[in-house]
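Field reference: sequence -> structure
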Amino acid sequence: MTGGSHTARRDALLARRLDLVASVSALTAEALRLNQKRAGIEMDVLRLELEIGRSGATEQLVRDLHEAGQNAAAITQACAACEDRIIAAEGDVEDVDRKLAAAANED
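Structure field:
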């Protein structure tokens, strides 16, 4: 491989790695937001359960508790999907790192 094409390949790999690291960072921030949202919903569930324990199970409280439980389940699924995307992106970073290491060994 010529020096110019080697440099171009390395530069392309570095640009790809930068994009992937930015994606991992964005996905990590999304996971954090989702986990914070899940924690808030779990606090709502606990608050509703306490209210039901204190004042009895009114129709509205039961409905609110059911809705909060559904929201928690949806957020849990979103968190799992986000974590899967993070794992995939990190795997892509590792692939690029291996290619960069191989390119460095060619020197």
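Note: The mean pLDDT is 93.
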